[in-house]
């Protein structure tokens, strides 16, 4: 058993607590520091699939995740008059909706409750400086406190400030030309248990999805190569969102009004993180901080959970942390590379500019949703797709 046992993890979302769970299980002394004053329980739908779901089963939280299902029964493509042009039920082949569909905040809460007795959580602080030595890492926090740890792992998201302290500008944040806003809005009589997708001209898409909290989750996305939008203030970004929504039709007025009065609008440019290395001395990174694949892949949560499981496992079986880091990258990099490979035409094909393009999207969706295509799809779909290993081995590190 290796000797570097005191680990600091930055970020209390999904990757961080999952890593902490497994490290604590293997006898490590783990502290999680989180910038927010409490758990950040907002956010949109996530689906836990494949290898990620297999790991949640090993953690003993799979049933809790399934019990917290959003209740979404599938996806409908609608036109400006809310007429359904195509429908993909959750039990169909290639469904948009997963059996393990859960709100981000609900998953964060499940992970916190699973780890809080074995892991030390520190809220309302963040790392401002890192000083590495041969035998430890000295960390300075936002309140001036200094602590010494054996290892430091950043798991604080795609905009990680800890990553910058470790690697500077070395990792590439690759913007894909798409902006997205997510927020929670009041439920209306027209809302159902179906997720509804509306494609507007001008390369814009609205998506309204049910949740299990008596509200609904809305998102609005649009294509743009203007990277300066990401640097604007919150009020300036809200102004741009309302301008982009103007003339879109369907639920345009509703979403615009909610943007104005909602204090929890998350707006960002969709980007991937490409890093030539994930570790530097006794420090490193996992999850979106290290290899964000974008929400377009639907695999961000799975990458976070799988990466956390594998890193903890390699640290438990190697005496030297450098050997653990090397073994981890060897296992994880091919999987990350495969997940980050976006299909041709994404995200542009789903965000057509003209009326003709919108008509094509709805027509193609209708064809794909047809009974014949569904039957063919079932012939080629896995009967157990949610428990498939997604082409990555999950060793049993408890036997090491």
Structure in words:
Strand 14 and strand 15 (215-223) form a beta hairpin. Helix 1 runs parallel beside helix 9 (300-317) and helix 9 (300-317) packs antiparallel against helix 10. The protein is an alpha/beta fold and 400 residues long. 34% of the residues lie in helices and 26% in strands. It contains 12 helices and 18 strands. The chain is globular. It has helices at 15-25, 50-59, 62-67, 104-115, 161-167, 234-245, 252-261, 288-291, 300-317, 321-340, 355-368, 371-380; strands at residues 6-10, 29-34, 45-47, 74-78, 84-89, 101-103, 120-123, 127-132, 137-141, 146-149, 151-154, 172-186, 194-200, 204-210, 215-223, 266-274, 279-280, 283-285.
């Amino acid at each position: 058993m290796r000797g570097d046992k005191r680990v600091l993890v930055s970020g209390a979302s999904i990757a961080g607590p999952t890593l902490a769970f497994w490290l604590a299980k293997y006898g490590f002394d783990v502290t999680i520091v989180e910038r927010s004053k409490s758990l950040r329980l907002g956010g949109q739908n996530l689906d836990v699939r494949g290898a990620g779901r297999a790991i949640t089963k090993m953690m003993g939280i799979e049933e809790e995740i399934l019990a917290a299902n959003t209740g979404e029964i599938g996806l409908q493509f609608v036109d400006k008059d809310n007429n359904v042009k195509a429908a993909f039920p959750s039990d169909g082949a290639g469904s948009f909706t997963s059996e393990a569909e859960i709100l981000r905040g609900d998953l964060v809460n499940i992970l916190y409750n699973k780890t809080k007795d074995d892991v030390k959580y520190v809220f309302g602080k963040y790392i401002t400086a890192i000083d590495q030595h041969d035998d430890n890492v000295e960390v300075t926090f936002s309140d001036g406190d200094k602590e010494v740890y054996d290892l430091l792992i950043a798991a604080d998201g795609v905009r990680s400030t800890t990553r910058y302290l470790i690697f500077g500008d070395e990792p590439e944040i690759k913007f894909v030309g798409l902006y997205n806003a997510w927020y929670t809005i009041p439920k209306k009589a027209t809302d159902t248990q179906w997720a509804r997708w509306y494609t507007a001209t001008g390369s814009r898409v609205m998506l309204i999805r049910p949740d299990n909290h008596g509200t609904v989750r809305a998102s609005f996305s649009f294509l743009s190569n203007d990277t300066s939008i990401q640097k604007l203030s919150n009020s300036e970004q809200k102004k741009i969102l309302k301008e982009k929504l103007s003339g879109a039709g369907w639920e345009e007025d509703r979403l615009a009004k909610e943007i104005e009065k909602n204090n929890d609008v998350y707006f960002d440019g969709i980007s991937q993180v490409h890093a030539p290395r994930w570790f530097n001395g006794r420090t490193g990174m996992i999850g979106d901080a290290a290899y964000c694949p974008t929400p377009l892949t639907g695999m961000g949560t799975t990458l976070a959970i799988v990466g956390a499981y594998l890193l903890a496992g390699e640290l438990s079986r190697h005496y030297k942390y450098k050997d653990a880091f090397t073994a981890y990258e060897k296992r994880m990099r091919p999987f990350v590379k495969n997940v980050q490979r976006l299909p041709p035409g994404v995200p542009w094909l789903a965000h057509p500019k003209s009326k003709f393009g919108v008509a094509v999207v709805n027509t193609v969706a209708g064809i794909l949703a047809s009974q014949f295509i569904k039957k063919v799809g079932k012939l080629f779909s896995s009967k157990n797709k949610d428990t498939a290993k997604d082409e990555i081995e999950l060793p049993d590190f408890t036997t090491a």
